[in-house]
Amino acid sequence: MNKYLKYTLLGLLWAAVFVYLLFAGGRVRRHRADQAVERIEVEVVDSTSQKRLVSGATVKEWVARSGIKTIGEKIGKVDLGAIERLVSENGFVSDAHASVSYSGTLDISVTQRTPLMRLLLDGYNSYVTEEGYVFAVPRNSAVYVPVVTGSYRPLFPPAYVGSAEAFTQERIRQSQERIAALEREKYPLYQREIQNDENTRAVRRMFIKKGWFESSEAFSKRVKELRRHKEQLRRKYRYEAQVIQTAIDKITAKQETELAVQKKILKRHEDFLKLANFVKWIEEDDFWQSEIVQIIARTTDSGALEVDLIPRSGAYTIRFGRLDNMEQKFDKLLKFYRKGLSRFGWDRYKTIDVRFEGQVVCW
Predict the structure, then answer these.
(1) pTM of the model
(2) Which of 115, 116, 303, 308 has the fewest Cβ atoms within 10 Å of its own Cβ atom?
(3) Of all helices (H) and strands (E), which one includes residue 298?
(4) Do the beta carbons of residue 310 and residue 319 sit within 8 Å?
(5) Which domain of life is it from (predicted)?
(6) CB under 8 Å to 188, separation ≥6 — which residues?
(7) pLDDT value at residue 26
(8) Would you give the DSSP letter of residue 78?
């Protein structure tokens, strides 16, 4: 086969492929124009009997109530983006993808968030993920995670949905803006201060010369008058300096108050992260995951976060205290379980206190 014939056949082959693609594309377009959506299929990713936040039936109900046209609508006209936004509006959904198959099936894939703990505080009924995402507990959910109760209050409000980190950063940003606005209030005062300093220096430069034919008595009188005038000006400018400094100090005090607020915000966020890490540690330990069913959290008068634990194995409360040195405390508690409670009985004590180093106190 010569080279010319070879290239000719190759060109014809590519032309045939191109024609076929045009034909197939046109056929698909005609099919999408004629084919209607016949059914909706929903897949909830990673959904189990133990961790189910949303069901396929619930997603179908959302779509039906939304008014978005699906069943009977031509597949080329279905607003897939609107369906994805509708499903993703729910805080417990991390991702949603919608597509329509060639046969007319609307497929909706939903990825749900994985709760780490549940906040069941005064006004709060929210799940928190390992990443710190907060969302309201959906109705008819079946996720078994440690429950946090008590007088503890997180930084974010009860109805908040979103990242706890993002909420904290926004609060800090707002506080920084207030500090910057207060700093701008100082600018006119700084200008007054500069002018007042210049006026003070001008007073120092004030002097008089004795005239050629001026008597000593007249010159002495003028010197006294100048001294009296300069002293009046000095008092005036000293008072002005005090007024300016007082105004600056008041603004500075407001800025320091804002900085103190920032420290409290960061402290509360740090406590929230400590609590989440504490629960995560429990969930990663097979024994304590099954043993600890409730965490009672509180903030002490000194501002420290402390917890009590409600176990599954007995009618007693574990006074755990601060979340520092938690591994040592759990090791100490486990030894007491094995060598103490197994000998004395699981119902002997009402309180087991592991807050103190090197000892377990029971009563």
Answers:
(1) 0.80
(2) 303
(3) strand 292-299
(4) no
(5) Bacteria
(6) none
(7) 47
(8) -
